[in-house]
Design brief:
The chain is an alpha/beta fold. 35% of the residues lie in helices and 16% in strands. The protein has 9 helices and 7 strands, in the order βαβαβααβααβαββαα. The chain has a 7-stranded parallel sheet with strand order 3-2-1-4-5-7-6. It binds adenosine-5'-triphosphate. Belongs to the NadD family.
Length: 216
Amino acid sequence: MARRIGILGGTFNPVHIAHLRGALEVAEQLALDELRLIPSARPPHRAAPQATAEQRLAMVRLAVASEPRLAVDDRELRRDKPSFTIDTLESLRGELAAEDQLFLLLGWDAFCGLPTWQRWQELLQHCHILVLQRPDADSEAPEALRDLLAARSVNDPQGLVGPSGQIAFVWQTPLAVSATQIRHLLAEGRSVRFLVPDAVLAYIQNHGLYRGQTDS
Ligand code: ATP
């Protein structure tokens, strides 16, 4: 039987409750066999993150350790090239059966940035795209995505058929939490308790991460 695998890529700098809750809710709603969080090594679109890749990975591992529906995939950290999602999808596809369904989860902000991604028009050859609402982001889709949305979106995420090729919007509990906000709070010496899992908070404290940094 075809497997249903979801992936959520990100900087996870640090991983927070909106990543985790969104991932878990989608995994449940769509009855996924597995949902993998994939930390990016050197995000192509961003300045270098303040925590090292290994520290970001360690925090994601701690965050999902007690949740069997969520897993961590560290392939982007094992690669010595920049982390382009298309490469990750091709690599994952090489390990799956042709009929397996692959779902790429993207927050609305990430989805709107798609036209700047490497070989973005090929993404849907490998996966379906699930767009997560993001209460802290703009609402207009960029012009470049209008045709794609018109051609590929389906109303009901349960109605995504086949291994790849369609786009659906999913509803998950809106949480206006961002890693940027968390880094800012920590830089100001304020608490981020309940915005990240306790194990992640302990890791941040034990490693003295994000202290006194006020850049993004
Ligand atoms: P930063 O504030 O550093 O930009 P972030 O909080 O956006 O980080 P990322 O690691 O960049 O976190 O996000 C990974 C994925 O999770 C992206 O697809 C992003 O859109 C999504 N995401 C992050 N936060 C939320 C949120 N609050 N609601 C829905 N999706 C989110």
